[in-house]
Amino acid sequence: MELTTIAKPYANAVFEIAQQNKSHADWKGVLEVGASVANDATMRAFVASPNSTKANKAKTMIAIFTSALGRALSKQEKAFVDLLLKNGRINTLPSILALFSAMSDLNSDAKAFHVTSAYKLSKKEEDEIIKDLSDKYKTTVSIDIEIDENLVGGVVIKEGDKVIDLSIKARVNELGSQLSVAH
């Protein structure tokens, strides 16, 4: 069965809880940490290991989430992590995050942008991009980042069919076209 199909009921439940408690940011943080855990080979091996008890796995996972988030998990968040462990569904966390984010975006005025960068952006650079886009569009903005070393430098920002190309590659191509027209 496809992970998205398995993840959908979990994402729906988390989204409903977040709507009721106005805790979208908290849940998004939990899901982001969970997706990182699910994508980590060492953590996948730990969760799959028969040498560790379910209680030990749950305790370790809660400690990881608490450390990564910098806060204690709520009762609902702990119950969610326990449920995923009990059902063997930790691997669905990236899909749950994607579905939750999509539902959150549809239910808010927020805009989601895809940023392609030539290199890994620092937290300060990410925050600057978010601030600039928020100011320009007068709304809450979220970004997901992809690295493409072919850009040489700069960024390409996409939202739907809108593209803001601030890459060096685009500037070089534009200069090349201007030079070829001049001859």
Q: Could you walk me through the main structural features you see in this protein, from its secondary elements to its overall organization?
A:
- By secondary structure, this protein is an alpha+beta fold.
- Helix content is 63%, strand content 13%.
- It is built from 8 helices and 4 strands.
- The chain is elongated and about 75 Å long.
Fraction of helical residues = 55-70%
The main β sheet shows up as: 4 strands, mixed
**Principal-axis shape:** elongated
Mean of residue pLDDT? 87
Please provide the count of β strands.
4
First CA to last CA: what distance?
Answer: 59 Å
Provide the low-confidence segments as ranges. Answer: none
Strand order in the sheet with the most strands: 2-1-3-4
* Rg: 20 Å
Helix tally? 8
* Strand-residue proportion: 5-15%
H-E string: HHHHHHEHEEEH
By secondary-structure content and strand pairing, the structural class works out as alpha+beta
Kindly list the characteristics that best describe this protein.
alpha+beta, four-stranded mixed beta sheet, 8 helices, elongated
